[in-house]
Design goal:
The chain is α/β, with parallel strands linked by helices. It has one domain: Alpha/Beta hydrolase fold, catalytic domain (Rossmann fold, 3-Layer(aba) Sandwich), CATH 3.40.50.1820. Helices cover 42% and strands 15% of the residues. The chain contains twelve helices and seven strands. Strands 1-3-2-4-5-6-7 form a seven-stranded mixed beta sheet, with helices on both faces. Helix 10 (198-205) links the parallel strand 6 and strand 7 (213-216). It starts with a helix and ends in a 7-residue tail after the last helix.
């Protein structure tokens, strides 16, 4: 269950923040008079706030790379995941309106828990985003999950014949990845080698094109994610059509 995964991440399911509708967002537009063709949607992790994407230099990295794209940071905090409303609020309050407003391309960027959220969104609403960027995503952290996957010969073999909704959210996301990885939009995995959740990252990294997997010395923290994101912002495969400077 998703609430169980949240309890693992927090150590407690109490004192979760309120979950207003629509979900709060912070929007930054390149121009006050017109929208760009691309929207970068950021999903936060379990701690901090939606202001962290600006404070930690993630939005600055886009601007410095010359990426012409509007941005929205979504306050999809733990409370929404615990109530199992995070993905529906993301879709209803952010992604569908973005398409209606004329954005032709949506890049969904998830940090930690937000990386899991990006994958859950693609599982539940395929095609909602045109690219995924997973920064240190939470993909489970228990040997009891990964050992059987390894013993089966990998996610595809392990997932074969499984009920897609069996088990907790960690099992479900690996069932989804094992069954439908090739149906994902272009997906980048960016992680630190010392990340808390490195075992899941290594497993997923082996399933993705090598050019879309980047690992550096670092941990499960903003310094690592910022360094990886800066490089990603200059990747012509990710933002080639949006960059306005070399």
């Amino acid at each position: 269950m998703l609430s169980a995964a949240v309890a693992v991440l927090t150590g407690c399911s109490l004192f979760l923040p309120a979950t207003p509708t629509p979900i709060p967002t912070l929007v930054t537009r390149i121009s006050a008079t017109e929208r760009t063709g691309t929207l970068v949607v950021f999903l936060r992790g379990r701690g901090g706030s939606i202001a962290d994407f600006e404070k930690k230099g993630m939005l600055t990295a886009l601007r410095e790379a010359g990426v012409r794209a509007d941005t929205v940071v979504v306050d999809a905090h733990l409370g929404y995941y615990f109530k199992r409303t995070a993905i529906e609020r993301l879709r209803a309050d952010v992604l569908l309106p973005a398409r209606q407003q004329g954005y032709r391309r949506i890049v969904l960027v998830g940090v930690s828990l937000g990386g899991l959220g990006a994958l859950l969104c693609e599982r539940d609403h395929p095609g909602s985003a045109d690219a995924l960027v997973l920064l240190g995503p939470y993909l489970g952290d228990q040997a009891g999950l990964f050992d059987p996957i390894d013993q089966a010969g990998g996610p595809a073999a392990w997932a074969a014949g499984r009920d897609p909704l069996a088990g907790g959210v960690e099992e479900q996301i690996w069932t989804f990845l094992g069954m439908r990885l090739t149906a994902l939009p272009p997906t980048w995995l960016l992680t630190g080698r010392g990340d808390t959740y490195a075992r899941g990252h290594r497993l997923l990294g082996g399933m993705l094109p090598a050019a879309r997997v980047a690992t550096i010395a670092g941990a499960h923290d903003w310094a690592t994610w910022r360094a990886l994101w800066r490089e990603a912002c200059t990747d012509p495969d990710l933002f080639g059509n949006e960059r306005t400077i070399p």
